[in-house]
Amino acid sequence: MESSPSGPRGESRRSFLKLAAAAAFPAIVPASALGRGGKVAPSNRVTLGVIGTGNQGMNDIESFLKDDRVQVVAVCDVNRESPGYWDGKVGGREPARRLVEKHYARHKPSGEYRGCDAYVDFREVLGRKDIDAVEIATPDHWHAIPVLEACLAGKDIYCQKPLSLTIAEGRAMSYAVNKHRVVFQTGSQQRSDPHFRRACELVRNGRIGDLKVVRVGLPGGRPDFGKTGDRKKPEPVPPGFEYDRWLGPAAGAPYAPARCHVNFRWIYDYSGGQVTDWGGHHPDCAQWGMGTELTGPVEIRDARAQFDPDPLWNTATAFSFEAVYEDGVRMIVSNENTMGVTFEGTKGTVYANRGKHTADPASILDSKIGPGEIHLYESDDHFRNFIDCVISRGPTAAPVEVAHRSITICHLGNIAMRLGRKSLKWDPRTEQIVGDDEASRMLGRPYRDGWKLPAV
């Protein structure tokens, strides 16, 4: 721990927020309801701790800082400060602390602010009674344990995508969130993109006729995002980096810069490559348009992948698989497809990607969704939506069970490709692979000695 947690500041903001919801506050509480002069009083803000301040964590802090209903009071990372993140940028808990304190200092007459604590151990953040919610923006193999511990601590959670490293972890996370009734938002921000929502509404309301095929395009390769791809051999652990903590439940392995930070996603011990890195986005929106958010396919077939030889990175560089549903609809996930999601029906097609959606025939776009038709959850800001729901206690745009079902498709695709299976039968009701013991063993992962999922 870099600094001791400040003591509880009286009754938690959680109590106020629950009372607000019980008093029938609107889903979005206006600033005037909580403070003066259009500003939210500090004592009425949702207090937030951010666990994982490397890549997405730093970006997300900036997004939360734009919401004056939020007060970021703690940051946590096992790395003090180093390069090796997006485009070789610097990340870690100290840059995150500086980012937060610089932001709040601008609003102080003195121009100074010292109110954000920095931690190495996420459990110290969860132990603070004055924290209402946490973001978990750690590598994929470090999602499940903090999520379960946060549920036990009663914290609301914003967890970055992909939700889980394995199907078993995802199921445990969904169970814990629902048992402890915490608010949960997955960082699948395309759920707050009007283009994806509009495209999915058109499909769900039959504007392209009977849905037949959904083509999901993801990127391929293993880009060297961290600019560390030339450093794959073992090196001494740099000062300020708690590398053994970074490994956590994963298997022991020598430190190498190309193993950690942003490039972790190219190693199966910590992630699932492009298939899962983007699995919380386009396959998730495919499920949204298909109306299969709480179920999944019954078979994965025609799985094929290319694994370019590498001394460290081992995820697929090119891939394709089909997820076949009970009604015969096929979702084809491939890096060869057009990036985004294309829905093909008997009367036309609808395509969506970030920032746009199109249709063929184009006249489909003129269609109005009537009051008696399906209107999907509407959010135009993923971070504000989370805070709205922390206040209202309502469902978020990207709930945990929906995220679990979406990333399950990608985990199954990876299992089939890694084992070379042409067909993998799946029961979405029991969440079990049928008739393949070897594949079934890959639904979870063994944890390193001394690590286990907490009982919830």
TrEMBL record:
- Protein EC: 1.-.-.-
Keyword field contains Oxidoreductase: yes
**Domain Gfo/Idh/MocA-like oxidoreductase bacterial type C-terminal per the UniProt entry, residue ranges:** 224-452
Top-level enzyme category: oxidoreductase
What InterPro entries does its record include?
Gfo/Idh/MocA-like_OxRdtase_N (IPR000683), Gfo/Idh/MocA_oxidrdct_glycsds (IPR050463), Gfo/Idh/MocA_OxRdtase_bact_C (IPR043906), NAD(P)-bd_dom_sf (IPR036291), TAT_signal (IPR006311)
In terms of SUPFAM superfamilies, this protein maps to: Glyceraldehyde-3-phosphate dehydrogenase-like, C-terminal domain, NAD(P)-binding Rossmann-fold domains
Specify the superkingdom. Answer: Bacteria
Under the heading Pfam families, the entry gives: GFO_IDH_MocA (PF01408), GFO_IDH_MocA_C2 (PF19051)
Q: What is this protein called?
A: 4,5-dihydroxyphthalate dehydrogenase
- Keyword check for DNA repair, yes or no: no
Q: Which organism is it from?
A: Aquisphaera giovannonii
- Keywords in alphabetical order: Oxidoreductase
What PANTHER family does the record tag this protein with? BCDNA.GH03377 (PTHR43818), OXIDOREDUCTASE FAMILY PROTEIN (PTHR43818:SF5)
Q: Where is the signal peptide?
A: none
GO MF entry, a single one = oxidoreductase activity
Q: Which residues form the Gfo/Idh/MocA-like oxidoreductase N-terminal domain?
A: 99-187
